[in-house]
Design brief:
Arc Repressor Mutant, subunit A, homodimer, 129 residues, DNA-binding, mainly alpha, two-stranded antiparallel ribbon, 5 helices, 2 domains
DNA sequence: ATCGGTGTATTAATTCAATTAGTACAGTGC
DNA sequence: GCACTGTACTAATTGAATTAATACACCGAT
């Protein structure tokens, strides 16, 4: 488990850890049911506090990407990939909802919301095939 | 100019002031080219620091809702209503962009983004006529 | 049972941004 | 020059986020 952390470029350590692990799973470096380094071990490697690693793991557990067995260790969840997909959907839905609720609160007509949405999707090349 | 401020329900004073003034304009209580209370006067009324009022005015100026004449005072911009509309669009666009950029970064296919968007618009009854 | 491993809980130190205020400065017009 | 306008700069306060210290609780093998 070789993680490279950029010391404080603004992104919290625990989020960096969580992100690296999710990528490792997506790429296949970490396989379902495979063990993650222990909280203490990873903390030693990175010269940080065990609690910081624990927090990263907690984040991942909430996302359903990993699970823990008390006294034994932490493992990649069998449905890690699918869980990652659902988590993505949740994040995006929350952001979209925020925008839509704000628009509605400001009295913006649906047609205008749709127009802005369409422009943005187009700008980022996200046309439907 | 009677503003009622709920002391620290979490919303910053300067934002509350800006909001009240925008509503006053929208409702017609403040008319284009009409004067706003001076920074000092309003600060006295509200028993707060002039700089706090100034900050609220700065916010509104950035949004094109008011303008200042040095040494004379602050006035409602002629295009205040239209400016308010544009400001709304900017806010909503920024929020939507955040969501779309995040979705793209997470590798979510456009069809899925569109699906979530559609669901949300439907949930909030924002169908196009 | 106890040892060496696992994760957890509680609390505190630190840092950082946001908010507000104190105070002194600068422009305008009578 | 006086009385009014907004402005600049600095500092106090607060509150949330992040990280760490340290002590606790669980598991499995010896």
């Amino acid at each position: 488990m070789h993680l490279k952390l950029t010391t404080a470029d603004g992104v919290p350590i625990y989020l960096q850890i969580a992100d690296r692990i999710k990528r490792a799973i997506a790429v296949g470096k970490l396989k379902p049911e495979g063990p993650l380094p222990s909280v203490r071990q990873l903390a030693l490697d990175l010269t940080i506090n065990p609690n910081t690693v624990a927090r990263a793991y907690l984040e991942l557990e909430h996302q359903g990407v990993i699970y823990k067995r008390q006294g034994q260790g932490t493992f990649v969840s069998p449905q890690a990939v699918e869980a990652g997909r659902k988590e993505r959907a949740k994040i995006v839905a929350a952001l979209l909802e925020k925008a839509i609720v704000e628009a509605a609160a400001l009295g913006m007509p649906p047609s205008e919301i749709a127009a802005i949405y369409g422009q943005l999707m187009h700008r980022y090349g996200l046309e439907r095939p």
